[in-house]
Structures are given as structure tokens and as C-alpha cells.
TrEMBL record:
InterPro entries found in the cross-reference section: Asn/Gln_tRNA_amidoTrase-B-like, GatB_Yqey_C_2, YqeY/Aim41, YqeY/Aim41_N
Protein name in UniProt: GatB/YqeY domain-containing protein
Organism from which the protein derives: Halalkalibacter okhensis
Pfam families: YqeY
One function term, GO molecular function aspect: carbon-nitrogen ligase activity, with glutamine as amido-N-donor
Length: 147
């Protein structure tokens, strides 16, 4: 079952179970996917869908951080719920050890040795871990292994 089919099924279930917050997030994701489809002018691949999900998740995490800094717990709790719903549709996340192993392998592949090679390493790693690891974690591990 692809992402759109799963979203449609979950939307029906959320309507039946009167889960307004979950329904709202699902509708927002479907809308974002539809917008991306029109923007690209073609059907979305699984990779395209994952990119949209990542974008939505990142926006919410950034907003959550800002709301927590401003002590807006009312808004932060709503965003946490939205993040939980979005994470249901994301692939299983890699552990820090798994990401570290991928970083080491990629550094060896591209022959990187200094922090100046960071862009080359990041460019090679990100397609491998897309949707499965946070970019901030990858960045931190690359810096750690290149220093």
C-alpha cells in the first residue's frame, strides 16, 4: 500500500473515530502531497512523498522548538501531537550507531579526510539515509569523524 492509499484509509478511520486532530494532520499531508504533485507535473514517487513528509515534519519540529523557547506550552503540545501523527508515516529511523557506521563507510568511499570535505561527504550520505535519519544528527557525526 503506497502512502496516499494509507492516508486515505487512515482518514476514513479518523473520521469514523472522530479523531479531529489526527484527521486535520492527515488532510494537511494529503494537501501537501497534492501540491507537490502539481508543482512537479507528474505522479509522485515514494521518494517524492518521503521528501514532502520530511519537509512537514521538519517545519513542525522547528516550530516546536520556537514555541518551547517562548513558553507556549499550549501550542507546543498541539505540535507534539502532529509530530507523532507524521512520524507514523515515516520509515523506521536508524539508530545513532547505524548512522555512524554509514558515515564512516561514506567517508572512506569519497576519500574525505578534513572538514573541508564535509560537503562532499554530506552530499553522498543524505540520499542513503533520506527519511531514516535526522540531518542534524548526520551533520554532527560527519563533523565528529572528520575532525
Amino acid at each position: 500500500m503506497n502512502l496516499l492509499e494509507r492516508l486515505n484509509q487512515d482518514m476514513k478511520n479518523a473520521m469514523k473515530n472522530k479523531e479531529k486532530d489526527r484527521l486535520s494532520v492527515i488532510r494537511m499531508v494529503k494537501s501537501s502531497l497534492q501540491n507537490e504533485k502539481y508543482k512537479l507535473g507528474r505522479e509522485l514517487t515514494d521518494d517524492d512523498s518521503l521528501t514532502v513528509l520530511n519537509r512537514e515534519l521538519k517545519q513542525r519540529k522547528d516550530s516546536l522548538h520556537e514555541f518551547e523557547k517562548a513558553n507556549r506550552e499550549d501550542l507546543a503540545s498541539k505540535l507534539r501531537e502532529e509530530i507523532n501523527v507524521l512520524e507514523d508515516y515515516m520509515p523506521e529511523q536508524l539508530s545513532e550507531e547505524e548512522v555512524s557506521q554509514i558515515v564512516l563507510e561514506t567517508i572512506a568511499e569519497v576519500g574525505a579526510s578534513t572538514k573541508g570535505d564535509m560537503g562532499k561527504v554530506m552530499g553522498a550520505i543524505m540520499p542513503k539515509v533520506k527519511g531514516k535519519a535526522d540531518g542534524g544528527l548526520v551533520n554532527r557525526l560527519v563533523q565528529k569523524h572528520l575532525s
